[in-house]
């Protein structure tokens, strides 16, 4: 076998350009598979470890105010393993160095450290001390964003009274892996933070002695979550319960779970494309090698080498570059995965986010690469094995040609000779040309899909921060306010426009389907907040009935004209039938809208307001912000500009990284297909081109004949790639969408222009390399080659 090994290494060295291209495509596919698989496993493992170590609850419930002795009643429910009751309140903060007011979520903890559900991980500093009600532990993202540390102070307005709080520790909790202000979808780390303080201090500040407003519990093995939730809802209905819900509906868990799901989707799509291209490349390269080495195969068989020896030898042409690609791809995938995990560390707040690669994923990736190599080489190896020595000693029978459309008299007179040669060759090898066009178009499609997220995010920013929301500030009240509060805010000097809304927690019921949802009552849909779908089309607020987002309507199984049963979960807890007036395909969340006057009638009271949208005079905004910091009755303030800046900052980092990776891999894919196609064409037509050169054709003319064929393939591949890119992006949008958000399917001219320029650039580089080989072509040696 030493003879075969020397021959294999010699041939691989001669074909190093093509083999490196094959190895690069395999490496890209393996790198995507390894990076995405390892990221998904690392996120799942980190989440599971975090949840287990800090006892993340299974069921959650918020109430208005319930007696503490019900904790024992909940503990006695069959299937309940552990219970924790707390006091939670959202307050306005005055943070050093921050002009605008911030919002803090205060969560009660025992004065003495003890094991509890949704436990704390103290990263820096210490736990609070008994008898010091001013001490708090603050969430790490908030402290980092505001450049604060243990020992610093913030001021909070708690129950209408200002209280200076001392930060003694930096904490994290599994309950806030994704730390976002209630009512918002994007984190604003500077203006929203979570704070843990003494249960006794919060009871005193909020007049909640012997009571709680938040309950969480874990389930015993085999317990029915649905049954326990039903018991909790029945028991705590009288205490203003909004309805218990499982972990799958907890906002932070939903975000991280959706992220893991999306990573899993990417594991299958991109590696499949790259390995499919590797199969194609190996097939055409090996078939050409077998075709050019017929006489060598005959000699090897004639001197006693078996079919198995010959088959394994040619299989080595596929396995060695594939093995090299698998090794490089594994290392590259591990490096990319580690980089992606550092980005996730900025998005999500884990106590410990550990990156690790499973042996199973590496083994599976190697197996997939080996299968791709076998699939791509099987046909060529079979031809080599089945070739009888006597037949192999003879040259291949020349193909039988006949006149085609290009040979018609009219076309011959009007088409230049080089172009006729190009078109004739393409028409005689339609199948090979079609496959080449399809492979190149896949690279274009990946480029389109890679930058599609830019266009989708631009549309999201336009819709959410320009078309839908036009306010500067959203002021959320800690209690429903009477309509007269509108006059109080409107009278503030510097408030240019004001709007109000009412939000009621309800249970929507249609047939056997139910959904807990906030029903939002608006004054209009043409003011500071507008109803805009993800295509940026405006919708009017119906005078009667409820307007649902399309995803919510699908979850309930309702259409326009159907009648929903709406059950209020607070106050009178009345139930009323309401007609569905239509649906709107919004980008974010699940929403239900109603005219505020109809919602007041539904609630059966004189009206109430939960929040206000305000547009401020920029010159007076700083003074208004100072007033808000001291104003009682405010639970939180959301700044539209700040959320937009936070969104752009976080999204830009992740998109830049992912787009750079996909663009690089798509360039490798395009180069491999174009370069290999041109190299194969050169080896197949070397004698023809040399003959034309001897007959008087210039180097430019034969270069046009060879490279023009590749140019035509690329020109056909680009529009097909555009269509495939749109299809791939639409599929990704559908697969990655969830109840939390839906990606709009939208494309900019820049996206297509970028893909065109990248593919054209790759083609020019390939053409330059092929042209150099063409210039160095030994005409005499080629013409002496036996057909």
TrEMBL record:
Q: Which PROSITE patterns match?
A: PROKAR_LIPOPROTEIN (PS51257)
Extract the coiled-coil ranges from the record. none
Q: Where in the cell is it found?
A: Cell membrane
- What cellular component terms from Gene Ontology apply here? plasma membrane protein complex
Q: What is its main location?
A: membrane
Q: What PANTHER family does its record include?
A: LIPOPROTEIN-RELEASING SYSTEM TRANSMEMBRANE PROTEIN LOLE
This chain belongs to the protein called ABC3 transporter permease C-terminal domain-containing protein
- Source species of the chain: Chlorobium phaeobacteroides (strain DSM 266 / SMG 266 / 2430)
């Amino acid at each position: 076998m030493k003879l075969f090994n020397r021959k294999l290494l010699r041939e691989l060295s001669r074909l190093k350009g093509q083999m490196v291209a094959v190895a690069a495509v395999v490496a890209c596919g393996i790198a995507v598979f390894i990076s995405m698989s390892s990221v998904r496993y690392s996120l799942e493992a980190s989440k599971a470890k975090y949840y287990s170590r800090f006892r993340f609850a299974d069921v959650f419930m918020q109430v208005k105010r319930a007696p503490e002795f019900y904790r024992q009643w909940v503990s006695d429910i069959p299937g309940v393993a552990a219970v924790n009751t707390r006091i939670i309140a959202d307050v306005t903060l005055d943070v050093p160095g921050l002009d605008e007011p911030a919002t803090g979520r205060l969560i009660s903890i025992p004065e003495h450290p003890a094991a509890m559900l949704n436990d704390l991980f103290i990263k820096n500093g210490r736990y609070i001390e008994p008898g010091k009600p001013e001490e708090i532990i603050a969430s790490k993202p908030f402290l980092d964003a505001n450049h604060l540390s243990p020992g610093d102070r913030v001021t909070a307005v708690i129950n209408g009274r200002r209280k200076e709080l001392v930060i003694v520790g930096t904490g994290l909790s599994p309950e806030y892996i994704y730390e976002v202000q209630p009512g918002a979808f994007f984190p604003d780390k500077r203006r929203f933070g979570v704070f843990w303080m003494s249960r006794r201090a919060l009871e005193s500040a909020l007049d909640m002695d012997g009571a709680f407003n938040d309950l969480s519990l874990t389930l015993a093995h085999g317990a029915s979550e649905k049954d326990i939730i039903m018991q909790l809802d029945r028991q705590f209905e009288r205490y203003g319960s909004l309805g218990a819900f499982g972990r799958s509906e907890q906002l932070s868990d939903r975000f991280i779970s959706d992220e893991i799901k999306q990573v899993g989707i990417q594991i299958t799509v991109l590696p499949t494309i790259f390995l499919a291209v590797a199969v194609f490349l190996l097939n055409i390269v090996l078939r050409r090698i077998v075709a050019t080495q017929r006489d060598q195969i005959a000699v090897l068989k004639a001197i006693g080498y078996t079919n198995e020896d010959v088959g394994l030898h040619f299989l080595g042409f596929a396995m060695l570059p594939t093995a090299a690609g698998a090794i490089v791809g594994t290392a590259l995938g591990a490096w990319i995965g580690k980089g992606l995990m550092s980005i996730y560390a900025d998005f999500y707040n884990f106590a410990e986010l550990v990156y690790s690669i499973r042996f199973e994923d590496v083994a599976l990736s190697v197996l997939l690469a080996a299968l791709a190599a076998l699939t791509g080489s099987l046909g060529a190896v079979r031809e080599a094995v089945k070739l009888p020595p006597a037949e192999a000693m003879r040259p291949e029978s020349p193909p039988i040609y006949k006149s085609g459309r290009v040979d018609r008299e009219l076309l011959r007179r009007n088409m230049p000779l080089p172009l006729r040669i190009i078109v004739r060759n393409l028409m005689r090898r339609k199948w090979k040309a079609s496959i080449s066009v399809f492979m190149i178009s896949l690279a274009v499609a990946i480029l389109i899909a890679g930058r599609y997220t830019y266009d989708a995010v631009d549309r999201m920013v336009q819709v959410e921060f320009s078309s839908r929301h036009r306010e500067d500030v959203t002021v959320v009240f800690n209690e429903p306010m009477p309509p007269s509060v509108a006059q109080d805010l409107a009278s503030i000097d510097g408030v240019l426009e004001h709007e109000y809304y009412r939000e009621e927690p309800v249970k929507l019921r249609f047939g056997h389907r139910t959904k807990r949802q906030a029903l939002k009552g608006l004054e209009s849909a043409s003011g500071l907040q507008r109803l805009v779908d993800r295509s940026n089309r405006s919708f009017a607020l119906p005078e009667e009935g409820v307007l649902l987002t399309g995803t919510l309507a699908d979850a309930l199984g309702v259409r326009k004209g159907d009648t929903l049963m709406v059950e209020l979960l607070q106050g009178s807890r009345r139930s009323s039938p309401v007609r569905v007036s239509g649906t709107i395909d919004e980008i974010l969340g699940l929403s239900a809208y109603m005219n505020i006057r109809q919602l007041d009638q539904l609630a059966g009271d004189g009206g109430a307001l939960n929040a206000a949208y305000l547009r401020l005079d920029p010159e007076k905004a700083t003074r208004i912000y100072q007033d808000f910091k001291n104003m009682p009755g405010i639970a939180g303030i959301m700044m539209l500009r700040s959320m937009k800046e936070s969104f752009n900052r976080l999204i830009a980092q992740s998109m830049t990284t992912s787009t750079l990776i996909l663009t690089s891999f798509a360039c490798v894919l395009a180069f491999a297909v174009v370069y290999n196609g041109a190299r194969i064409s050169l080896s197949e037509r070397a004698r023809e081109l040399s003959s034309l050169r001897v007959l008087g054709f210039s180097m430019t003319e034969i270069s046009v004949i060879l490279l023009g064929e590749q140019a035509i393939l690329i020109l056909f591949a680009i529009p097909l790639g555009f269509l495939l890119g749109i299809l791939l992006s639409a599929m990704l949008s559908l697969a990655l969408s969830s109840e939390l958000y839906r990606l709009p399917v939208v494309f900019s001219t820049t996206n297509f222009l970028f893909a065109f320029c990248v593919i054209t650039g790759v083609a020019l580089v390939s053409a330059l390399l092929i042209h150099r080989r063409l210039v160095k072509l030994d005409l005499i040696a080629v013409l002496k080659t036996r057909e």
